[in-house]
Every structure is written in structure tokens, then in C-alpha cells.
């Protein structure tokens, strides 16, 4: 689902409430909520996920073994590898703060990829103790305006590898960073 089809913050808050009230009579299942959602414990170990999460990641997460993220491999927008322990969910758990405005690329075991905007959010119990986190993964693959900015960023990075002038390299890298920021703005302006 694209953010224009639902409000990601409302989905995240419903998931947080569902996790915080696991034993309550009004318990909501993650499968009742739209989007790819998963839950970790306070140490970042995956404890729960919905079917949409399996579809998005292209794999079945292993509870209590997979940590930080349900994806197979992660990359930044500039195609550099993003270790799971540095992903937005890991940051949210360590800082016990929601992380917003991030984007990443998930590579599936079959080699396909999906760009996404994560919404990692810490969960606290009724007494205020940190008990884990939920994450909503919003697929942003193929958004035309965003893809145009990313294409320009990739072009600048490619060109920067073909020249030897340091000032030109720096200029092209700066341009690529600015294009990537514009691509992120496309995502969060419509959320």
C-alpha cells in the first residue's frame, strides 16, 4: 500500500496499541492492520509479524533468531550495504525513539528488491517500561517522481567515478546527495 491509501502513523499507533495490550480483550492481530508489520522484543529479536511482512520481505522471518529487521539484506539509497544493526529499527530500539524520514532498499532472497520507508516505533507497557518495538514497512518502489530523482543521483555517482578532478567529484557527490534528499521528500510529503 502507498501512504496516500492509508495513514502510516495511524497504522503504527494501532500496532503499538495491539502489542502493548496483547492480553487485553480487544486485542488486534497484526494481520488485521494494513501494511507489512513486525514486532521485536527489547533486544531487537523478531517476535511477531503479519502475512504482508512475509510478502514484502520475500521470506519467512525466524522469531527469536532474526534481529532488527525481517528483510534478507538491506541497502541505502546509494546502493551501499546497510547492516541490520544499523537499520532504522535498530536505531529506534537503541534510542527508544521513533525514527522517521528514512528510506532503504530491501533485497529479497530471490534477488528482487523493494524500496521502502520504515516507521520503527518503540513500545512501552502500562508502567512505562520499554518492551520492544513495531515497524511498518511502506513499499515505495516505482513512484515515478521519486524514481527520477534517484536515477539522477545514480547518474551523478556513476560520473563521479569516471573523473579524477577532486572538485568535480565533490560537486557530483553533493548533487547526488541532494537528489536523494529530493527522492525522500517525495515519499514523506505524501505520507
Provide a compact summary of the structure:
This protein is of the alpha+beta class.
Key traits:
191 residues, alpha+beta, 7-stranded antiparallel beta sheet, 5 helices, 7 strands, elongated, disordered N terminus
Helical percent range? 25-40%
Structural class: alpha+beta
Instruction: Give the CA-based shape.
Output: elongated
Largest pleated sheet: 7 strands, antiparallel
Number of DSSP strand runs? 7
- Strand fraction equals 15-25%
Q: Give the end-to-end Cα distance, rounded to a whole number of Å.
A: 11 Å
Description:
- The chain has helices at residues 8-20, 51-57, 88-95, 144-160, 166-189, and strands spanning 36-41, 46-49, 73-75, 104-107, 113-118, 121-124, 130-139.
- The model is unreliable at 1-5 (pLDDT under 50).
- The protein is elongated.
- Strands 1, 2, 3, 4, 5, 6 and 7 form a seven-stranded antiparallel β-sheet that branches.
- Helix 4 (144-160) packs antiparallel against helix 5.
- The chain has 191 residues and is of the alpha+beta class.
- Strand 6 (121-124) and strand 7 (130-139) form a beta hairpin.
Amino acid at each position: 500500500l502507498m501512504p496516500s491509501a492509508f495513514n502510516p502513523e495511524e497504522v503504527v499507533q494501532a500496532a503499538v496499541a495491539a502489542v502493548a495490550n496483547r492480553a487485553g480483550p480487544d486485542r488486534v492481530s497484526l494481520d488485521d492492520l494494513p501494511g507489512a508489520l513486525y514486532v521485536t522484543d527489547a533486544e531487537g529479536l523478531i517476535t511477531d509479524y503479519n502475512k504482508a511482512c512475509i510478502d514484502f520481505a520475500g521470506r519467512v522471518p525466524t522469531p527469536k533468531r532474526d534481529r532488527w529487521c525481517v528483510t534478507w539484506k538491506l541497502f541505502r539509497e546509494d546502493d551501499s550495504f546497510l547492516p541490520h544493526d544499523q537499520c532504522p529499527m535498530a536505531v529506534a530500539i537503541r534510542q527508544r525513539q521513533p525514527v522517521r524520514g528514512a528510506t532503504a532498499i530491501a533485497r529479497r532472497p530471490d534477488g528482487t528488491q523493494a524500496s521502502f520507508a520504515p516507521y520503527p516505533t518503540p513500545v512501552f507497557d502500562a508502567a512505562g517500561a520499554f518492551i520492544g518495538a513495531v515497524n511498518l514497512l511502506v513499499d515505495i518502489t516505482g513512484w515515478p517522481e521519486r524514481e527520477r530523482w534517484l536515477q539522477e543521483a545514480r547518474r551523478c555517482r556513476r560520473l563521479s567515478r569516471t573523473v579524477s578532478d577532486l572538485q568535480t567529484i565533490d560537486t557530483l557527490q553533493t548533487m547526488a546527495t541532494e537528489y536523494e534528499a529530493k527522492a525522500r521528500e517525495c515519499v514523506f510529503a505524501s505520507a
